[in-house]
Amino acid sequence: MPLRSSYDAVVVGGGHNGLVAAAYLARAGRSVLVLERLDHTGGAAVSARTFAGVDARLSRYSYLVSLLPRAVVDDLGLAFAVRKRAVSSYTPAVRGGRPTGLLVETGPGSATRESFAALTGGDREFDAWQRFYGMTQHVAERVFPTLTQPLPTRGELRARIGDDAAWRALFERPLGETVEEAFADDLVRGVVLTDGLIGTFASAHDPSLAQNRCFLYHVIGGGTGDWDVPVGGMGAFTDALAGAARAAGAEIATGHEAVALHTDGEQAEVAYRTAGGEGTVAARTVLFGAAPAALAALLGEEPPRPGPEGAQLKVNMLLRRLPRLRDESVDPRQAFAGTFHVAEGYADLETAYREAAAGALPQAPPSEIYCHSLTDPSILADDLVRDGYQTLTLFGLHTPARLFADDNDATREALLRATVAQLDAHLAEPLAACLATDAEGRPCIEAKSPLDLERDLRLPGGNIFHRELAFPYATPETGRWGVETRHPNVLLCGAGAVRGGGVSGIPGHNAAMAALGR
User: Fold this and answer.
1) Which of 42, 14, 5, 456 is nearest to 258 (CA)?
2) How far apart (Å, rounded) are the C-alpha atoms in residues 223 and 140?
3) What is the pTM of this model?
4) Residue ranges of domains in the chain, CATH in brackets
5) DSSP states of 337-390
6) What is the chain's pLDDT, residue by residue, as a tens digit (518 residues)?
């Protein structure tokens, strides 16, 4: 139970962003209480021993780090590290009736150039790749530092980027137009487009530019766009955050579910429920780490319509060994060390989108896979490492929550079978032959649909971003930091803030700065 009846700040939700906010506020001398519904902190950024009797600590939901500013780690004194992946991606393909693929190093060099040439017959696509990602890195270097500052205006951000062609390509024109102009090869186009579709259900040519906003956040992280592996798994990050918050004086109350919020703009009261009863706590400021739709429910306000909707399949696996590939020119340890793209050609992605938009599961579900344990074996027990066990994480695209509404379990299983079949088409042996088994003899594979994420994590519609992403500049509705609500003393500190989404800590940092500014 809380030690006090009133605090300077109450943080609702003990996910990574809520913990960042709590740590910053407590370090600034504020009295802070974190209310977390579950019996543990971390939200979607947790590690878990998913399979019975198997000592493998998987990043069960969120699994890679890109947007976390180094300043947050340093400011809070976190004992946490990430590792670079030597391989950015590998995409299997069949050309001229033979298996092949596209290998892209993290720092594209001679091996990447040779892979492009073998796949496409020349240097044109590799040169286009270098130009395109030179442009995105230019944008990343200028935009990423602004994410922990007050929101710039649209004009200020455009001036900061200083490249009108880049601005139009990423902020004004549908991403599909830019990709089609830059690249000719369907497979190369698809690899580029995927960063605009992670958790976002949209066509490459969607006039809303939802795909552009998703793409932008995926290519600006750290000023480089690199996606890094959290050492010790994602739970190591949130455990370090919880430790930093407690060390600074914040209280963390797990098993405390916020059920109502009342505010007059100056003082607030949060009602909560525990296994043993109910209570209330007062606060000058409330920082809300869950979705805006959940905040509306606590305030007794009308939720946004239409509600958020997620569109992804998350699959966790433990393998006795990595499967052999039909493309014998690449080692599986190299192919799975980065993002392994499956059924993600440009035309494949559009077909899958159209099928799902029409109400059917994609016949060839697109997905991307990576092996955490190749980069960070510490998540596995020593005996598993010795025996060659590896993890696989799969993230499927274009599977909106609406498709699961009638029968979540049956639809999830059908989608998993179809997704694995797409992977098997590029393997020299079936995935099932490589899966480990748990203590009860069951294959070590679990799948989560958007509705499962809604049930487990209270993500509305399973939307991993809480709501649609926004461009990182101010509008009349955003407020100074992008965390403000219509109640002056209620701030968003989760993924639903402007510049939210991903494992970043940015909304938590910005909400704390806004609260301190009050």
Assistant:
1) 14
2) 5
3) 0.97
4) 1-518 (3.50.50.60)
5) TSEEEES-SHHHHHHHHHHHHTTS--SS--EEEE-HHHH-GGGB-HHHHHTT-E
6) 898 999 999 999 999 999 999 999 999 999 999 999 999 999 999 999 999 999 999 999 999 998 999 999 999 999 999 999 989 999 999 999 999 999 999 988 999 999 999 999 999 999 999 999 999 999 999 999 999 999 999 999 999 999 999 999 999 999 999 999 999 999 999 999 999 999 999 999 999 999 999 999 999 999 999 899 999 999 999 999 999 999 999 999 999 999 999 999 999 999 999 999 999 999 999 999 999 999 999 999 988 888 899 999 999 999 999 999 999 999 999 999 999 999 999 999 999 999 999 999 999 999 999 999 999 999 999 999 999 999 999 999 999 999 999 999 999 999 999 999 999 999 999 999 999 999 999 999 999 999 999 999 999 999 999 999 999 999 999 999 999 999 999 999 999 999 999 999 999 999 999 999 97
